[in-house]
Design goal:
The chain is α+β, with helices and mostly antiparallel strands. It has nine helices and six strands, in the order αβααβαβααβαββαα.
Length: 411
């Protein structure tokens, strides 16, 4: 029974270890769990409601008002009845409608649309930032996993060869000291493999932390499918920010001009309004009115506000031009690094080919007792260093692709 239980545990362990997850899984989890993205989504919905509230404010407003007033005159003392009427009761339904031109309504609508557009841009940038951080950590974990798997293979190979060398040492084909040197190398390689496994566990833990998931499962990561995405500079989401900021300033100029246009309002009420002085039962009626406000002089505030907006536009344009210069330089630098990575990989492949040939030759000599143990260990250390360099170069290349796509892609 105990053996059966142990067998089940081993199966569960192997199943969890053999489980594979890809980059898309972690990105989707991070997007789902991100409170910042949820916050932006709610702000976008709120901006739509604000726009509807603003439209409602300019529709016909209807309100009911009930007032009752009594001002007694006692022994000749009291309010002048010519002013107070002694008593008064009014129950009226009032109507108020502000008349606005089409340009004024459009300017108001544009202001809310620009607020919403800015939130959408901010959400897209937040999404890009989140994806970039997840991809970067995934690449780091994948690189550690690659090194771990290779070092595990080297460790297994060394342990097999240690058995062979041990037999040869017992038969006096190799010195005992040669075997001890080789055994120390095996122990050192086992330690390196263990440290890489621990590093991979930590990298996975950090990846799950960034995605907002509580998971300690030891899983295998699939090779990230990353390619450079082509996109025109003018379509970059980062330049959209400056465009919206400029449109906000220009729309602000329109709103300023609209406040200096004549304001017309239609007024009206209907109901009961009486002082009961004469035939109060007949005091049902209605009234209509017209309100007109014409700005004449405000101390030159309009001109000053337009001047402020002009300076704000000049500032935005300056930042936009500077960002464009840095943006272009950033992409040039990243493409340069990408090409350097390709050249480095070509050189490492050439070195690996020579190192593998040397290792194979030493393995054959080891069996016959003709190999120099120190030379074999040096060749082995060399191929491990090359493999680690190749893994690191692959990580660097993928990180560069991630960085390029961050700046160029609008997805």
């Amino acid at each position: 029974m105990k053996r059966y239980f142990f067998f089940i545990l081993v199966l569960i362990s192997l199943r969890s270890f053999s489980q594979e997850k890809d980059l898309g899984y972690f990105i989707q989890k991070a997007r789902t769990n991100s409170p910042l993205l949820a916050d932006y989504q709610n702000q976008i919905k709120i901006s739509t409601l604000d726009s509807l509230l603003n439209r409602a404010a300019y529709k016909t407003q209807v309100a009911g008002n009930l007032n009752a007033n009594y001002a007694p005159v006692i022994n000749g003392y009291g309010y002048d009845t010519a002013l107070s009427n002694g008593q008064m009761v009014s129950a009226l339904v009032g109507v108020n409608k502000r008349i606005m031109s089409k340009n004024q309504l459009n300017s108001q609508a544009d202001s809310f649309k620009l607020i919403k557009d800015a939130l959408i841009v901010n959400k897209k940038i937040a999404l890009k930032d989140l994806d970039k951080s997840i991809i970067a950590q995934y690449i780091a974990a994948f690189g550690t996993e690659t090194q771990m798997e290779y070092n595990n293979k080297i460790t297994s190979l060394l342990k097999e060869e240690e058995v062979i060398l041990k037999k040869l040492a017992r038969n006096s084909i190799y010195k005992q000291t040669d075997y001890l040197i080789f055994n120390a190398t095996v122990k050192q390689q086992q330690l390196a493999a263990l440290q890489l496994k621990q590093q991979y566990q930590n990298d996975l833990a950090l990846l799950n932390y960034l995605t907002g998931e509580k998971d300690t499962t030891f899983v295998k990561l699939k090779t990230p499918d990353l390619t450079i995405k082509l996109n025109q500079q003018e379509n970059s989401i980062f330049f959209k920010q400056f465009e919206i900021d400029s449109l906000k300033i220009k729309n602000s100029d329109k709103l300023i001009d609209n406040t200096y246009k004549p304001a017309l309002s239609l007024l009206g009420d209907a109901g009961y309004n009486s002082s009961f002085i004469y035939q109060g039962y007949k005091n049902f009626g209605f009234s209509v009115g017209l309100g007109l406000s014409i700005p004449i002089y405000d101390g030159n505030q309009r001109s000053l506000q337009h001047q402020k907006n002009s300076m704000a536009l000049a500032t935005i344009d300056s930042y936009n031009k500077n960002f464009k210069r840095q943006y272009d330089q950033q992409l040039l630098l990243l493409n340069q690094k990408f090409n350097q990575s390709a050249a480095t990989n070509k050189m490492l492949q050439s070195q690996l080919s020579v190192a593998e040939t040397l290792i194979e030759a030493n393995k054959k000599l080891l069996v016959t007792g003709d190999a120099q143990i120190t030379e074999y260990i040096i060749a082995l250390s060399n191929i491990i260093s090359i493999q680690d360099a190749m893994a690191q170069n692959t990580v660097n290349k993928l990180q560069i692709i991630n960085e390029i796509n961050y700046w160029k892609s609008n997805e």
